[in-house]
Write a structure and sequence with these properties.
Rossmann fold; alpha/beta; about 230 residues; 7-stranded mixed beta sheet
């Protein structure tokens, strides 16, 4: 026996049930599992097909969240961010991808490789003008899933507000409008000498001192592993 819907969908259903009935999330999860014919949520999870980590992670996010997605080069952080955008599209979110790193054709090729077809609900923007103000102008008042590639590139232009100020503006807009913002970040080379399983906030490469407290979550990746942590 397998669940009737993907895990990420059933988790969202459980969250709604927990809010509606005022019960703990674990009780709501078990209730959903019983409706699916399982004794408990752990049994349902064990019987589910191979996990789609991006969809699972997207199901943990809510309107107003800002996520710091960090990894060393070659760990797949950009592709993972696109998979998160794919999960958002499938959940009927408008998605915007802002990149100062890749050409539009490169992003289009990656999206095509994921089976993401062109749609009015998805925008890819490679403008050299990308900064917090530009992002907010382009996304407007529609709650959107926003990927920014990448954090350090927003700190390269001295004519712009400093990075902490830009992040604060993005956070305020996310809370007010209901965006979810994923900010891809570089990780310092020193992480590779530390022999830790995953990077942490202390490993974020900073051109200038930056207040990272605006982020509600951090997702760090290494050696095929990705882990989402709630920060505040």
């Amino acid at each position: 026996m397998t669940p009737s819907a993907p895990i990420y969908y059933l988790k969202r259903k459980a969250k709604k049930l927990a809010r509606k009935d005022g019960i703990p999330l674990n009780a709501a999860l078990d209730s959903i599992a019983r409706d699916e014919g399982f004794q408990a949520w752990s049994h349902l999870a064990a019987a589910a097909p191979e996990k789609d980590i991006a969809r699972e992670m997207f199901s943990e996010l809510n309107a107003g969240d800002m996520v710091l997605l960090g990894a060393r080069p070659g760990q797949g952080k950009t592709l993972f961010a696109l998979k998160l955008a794919q999960a958002a599209l499938q959940a009927d979110w408008h998605s915007h991808i802002f990149t100062l790193e890749d050409h539009a054709q490169t992003v289009d090729n990656r999206l095509s490789g994921l089976g993401i077809a062109a749609t009015p609900a998805l925008t890819v923007d490679t403008s050299e003008e990308i900064c917090a103000d530009y992002i907010l102008e382009q996304t407007g008042q529609t709650p959107s899933f926003i990927v920014v590639d990448y954090l350090q590139m927003l700190d390269r232009n001295r004519s712009l507000p400093d990075l902490s100020e830009q992040l604060t503006a993005l956070k305020q807009s996310a809370k007010m409008i209901g965006h979810i913002i994923v900010m891809i970040s570089q990780i310092s080379r020193s992480f590779e000498d530390a022999h830790h399983a995953l990077p942490g906030l202390a490993d974020i490469r900073q051109i200038n001192p930056t207040d990272l407290s605006v982020f509600t979550h951090a997702c760090f990746m290494s050696a095929g592993r990705a882990e989402l942590t709630k920060l505040n």
